[in-house]
Amino acid sequence: MDTSSGTQDTATLMEQILYEVKRVVVGQDRFLERVMVAILAQGHLLVEGVPGLAKTLTVKTLANAVRGQFKRIQFTPDLVPADLVGTRIYNQKTGEFSTALGPVFTNLLLADEINRAPAKVQSALLEVMQERQVTIAGETHKVPSPFLVMATQNPIETEGTYPLPEAQVDRFMMKVLVDYPSDEEEFVIVERVIGPPVSVTPVASTEQLAALQAECRRVYVDPSLVQYAVRLVSATRTPDKHGLKDLARFITFGASPRATISLTEGARALAMLRGRGYALPEDMSDLVPDVLRHRLVLSYEALSEGLSPDALVARIMAKVPAPAKPLEHEKLAA
Which ranges carry the Sigma-54 factor interaction domain (predicted)? Predict the structure, then answer.
């Protein structure tokens, strides 16, 4: 099998999917790239951004482009786990119970304002994310494949919200911050909204997406890159060992091994999106802030000094060197 042509076909298909989504969604390139990385690496996304930044539109359009199912759940304080995963219903005519599956049985699930629902509901969703299955009255039901959960958090209001516990936030592969569009982008957004509606043409199927996920696992990651991921994550736990002694007082708990796995899987997916069959150091370093920002538990000292997880991650990245690119030493010698 010719790997280069296979990689080329993959890159073309990914381009077609992105092109379809961009016909509807203006800007948000970075966010869209992270959504694609999560789908390929079979991870889940936590998205933080104010309302009206096309988070729902992006996922819905993407689902249409890959002929996938899309469902959106608005999380509210009165939600119960059965509203999410499903329940048993009694049929009076037949005198039997039947299972009604909940909205989690879909390909792309948008959990809107996840921090508005109580802990019971949050943990029900996080269980589905981890196990990719649901147990209703002793019966196990698997969710469709591919399966991606994108949960959103609104950073504005904190009243009436239930913050996600640190251990549960760790289940998300990445936390992405979505910002306001530029003036030019906003102009185009308004023009598109007031103009004729754009219909999305499906360019791939969920089967093709599953094949892309399998191909993503074949992308080569050099051991030196895995070592880089290990060093970065280790620096969040024991900064002293990595020459970052002053950072120890700011971090109460560092990132778990899930962060190292997410960095490696994410670098693979990003390399594949960029049309390569091997990962480079920049594929990994581009994702470090997204993978680590929600996994650091900051101390009161860090909060009192107004330090953000991103600022600490930047300091760690400045101190922990990335490995040289493959064959770079040969270029230098030449």
Answer: 14-154
Q: 252-307 pLDDT, tens per residue?
A: 888 999 999 999 999 999 999 888 889 999 999 999 999 999 999 888 998 898 88
In angstroms, rounded to a whole number, what is the distance separating the alpha carbons of residues 33 and 285? 15
In tens, the pLDDT along 240-249 reads 888 888 888 8
Confidence of residue 200 (pLDDT cuts 50, 70, 90): confident
**The CATH number of domain 219-333, selected from 1.10.8.80, 1.10.3210.10, 1.10.3810.10, 3.20.20.70:** 1.10.8.80
Name which of 210, 56, 72, 214 is nearest 144 in CA terms: 210
pTM score, whole prediction? 0.86
C-beta of residue 27 within 8 angstroms of C-beta of residue 183: no
**CA 69-70-71 angle, 5° bins:** 125
Q: Rounded distance, CA 121 to CA 80, Å?
A: 6
Q: Number of helices and strands (H, E) in the chain?
A: 15, 11
Q: Under CATH, which number does the domain 3-213 receive?
A: 3.40.50.300
Beta strand spans in the chain (E): 45-48, 70-74, 86-91, 96-101, 108-112, 133-136, 139-142, 148-153, 174-177, 251-253, 297-298
Distance CA 117, CA 119 (A): 7
HEC-encoded secondary structure of 294-334: CCCEECHHHHHCCCCHHHHHHHHHHHCCCCCCCCHHHHHHC
| Placement of tokens 């996938």 in the chain | 68
> Does an H or E element contain 49, and which?
none
Question: Which amino acid is it at 105?
Answer: F
The contacts of residue 259 (CB under 8 Å, 6+ apart) are 170, 233, 236, 291, 292, 295
pLDDT tens, residue by residue, 2-29: 445 556 677 788 888 888 888 888 877 8
Q: Is 291 helix (H, G, I), strand (E, B) or coil?
A: helix
Residue with tokens 């490696």, as numbered in its chain: 264
- b/e sequence 103-123, b meaning 16+ C-beta within 10 Å: bbbbbbbbbbbbbbbeeebbe
